[in-house]
Specification:
- The chain has 249 residues and is mainly α.
- 73% of the residues lie in helices and 2% in strands.
- The chain has a two-stranded antiparallel sheet with strand order 1-2.
- A hairpin with a 2-residue loop joins strand 1 (130-131) and strand 2.
- Helix 3 packs antiparallel against helix 8.
- The chain is globular and about 60 Å long.
- The two termini are 19 Å apart.
Length: 249
Amino acid sequence: MDRFLFLTFDGLSTGAVYAAFALALVLIWRAARLVNFAQGAMAVATAYVGYAVVSATGSYWLGFGAAVLAGLALGALVERVLMRFVGHANPLNDVIVALGLVLLIQAVLGIVFGNEYRPAAAPFDTDALSVGGISAMSPYDLWVLGAVLAVVVLLGLLFTRTPIGLRMRASAFAPEVSRLLGVNVGRMLTVGWALAAAVGALAGMLVIPTGLGLHPHAMDLVFVIAFTAAVVGGLDSPAARWSAACWSA
């Protein structure tokens, strides 16, 4: 029973990270109706920025904030400089460009930082706490769950309770009608890409200290699992997506 409970709690923490990364994929889907296959590589790039700040300052929290801000900037840059000029008549165009971006980012990271595995320290203890003689979650697991739950709630409120969230949804589903109603569709796409990259950066900073370590391909498997969870759970259903991600863990 002790082993079962420990694996259950550990799976919840791991599944929460997959859910956060799936949310990043869904944000792109809601904003542009496409799947960003470069999401994992972009998350690793922002993680390198975060851990470079950690190494320079000694503060995990400054690095965490720097990674999220780098995600916002990278997402906006990719949409403005690259994806905006891709012809969307054929969905394969977006896929091919995104896969090319993966190769480019991973190659640049390998050239700049090297391909070796770099261990990444967690901000909290990763040893499981014992409650009544039963191993439960570690302080780091609790931090992961709390951070992901906060992101889920905030994004849910953004898309259902705020004008900018409603404009983003309208721009994705009916761009021509949205333009006639005065919505700046291009700006909403940029915001969607920026938010998605920021959430991906957060997921990367949460999952890398769990044993993945930092290297250019660190998020490849996470992307595969999160993409599967997003599709199985429903690209427009946050609750179902969360359940699918936890089960996949």
